[in-house]
Amino acid sequence: MPFVKLQKNKAYFKRYQVKYRRRREGKTDYYARKRLIVQAKNKYNAPKYRLVVRFTNTDIVCQVVYAKIQGDAVLAAAYSHELPRYGIKVGLTNWAAAYATGLLVARRVLAKMGLADKYEGFPEIDGSVEEVEALEDGPRPFKAFLDVGLKNTTTGSKVFAAMKGASDGGVFVPHSERRFPGFDPESKELDAETLRNYIYGGHVAEYMRSLKEEDEERFKAQFARFIKVGVSADDLEGMYAGAHKAIRADPSAKPTAKTTTHKRRNQRPLNAKQRKDRVRQKIEAFKATLE
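The structure corresponding to this sequence follows.
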C-alpha cells in the first residue's frame, strides 16, 4: 500500500479557526458586507448608510442602517405591515408593496434628517429611471447603498422594487436600469410602461383577470383576501396611487398599542414574613389534628 499523508493531524486542528457565527449560520455574506460598510479614512468617521431590504413570508422590511464598532445601528425603518394604514390592505409582499415600503422608509428618513422639503424625489411615476441630483444652493441628498443580503439579484427582483421606491422618495441610491422589469438585455433599453405597470400592481391585476376567466374556483381560493376586503383588479392602480400620496403626506411611524398582558405561570415567591406565617399555620393545623 502506498504512503498516504495524514492531512488532518493534531497541528491542523490546533491551528483551525472557525468562521464567523453568522457565516456558519448562513445569514451574512461577509465578502459583500465588508465592501458595504468600509468607509474612506478621509471622511472622518462619517456614517456609510445602507438601504437594507429583507423579505419574510408575510412581511417586507426596509431599513436605513449604518455600521458601528458595537454593531449595526438602524436610523429608520419601514415595514409592509404598516401599509394598511395607507390604504393597501392586501398583497403586502408583492412588487407594488415592496415599492411602497421603500417609498415609506425614504420619506421617513428624510423627515428625520430634515431633508423632506428639499428632496421630494419623483412624485410623478411614469416608469422612467432617474437618480436624485444635488441642489446647487443646498445640502447634498441623503445617500444610501442597496444591501440585498443573500437574495439573488435577478432581473425583476422585489429588492429592486424597494430600491426604486426609495429612489423615487428622494434618497440617492446609486443604481442603473438593468435589473428592473421591462429591461431588454439585447437592445439594452428599458420599457418604462412595463416598470410603471409593476409599480401600480398591473401585473397582479392582469393575472387576476386571466385566472378568473380560466378557473373561477381557483381564483376565489387564491384571491380570497382580495375578495373579502372588496378589492378587484380594476381597483389596484387607484389603491396604490392613493397610498403613495398618503405616504408622502404623513410618513411618520405610528406606535402600536400593546393590549396583551403577561400571565404569570409560576407562583410568586413568598417573603420571610409570609414563610414564617405559613410554617405557623402548618404547626397549628398539625396540633389541631392531635387533639
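The CA atoms of residues 181 and 254 lie 33 Å apart.
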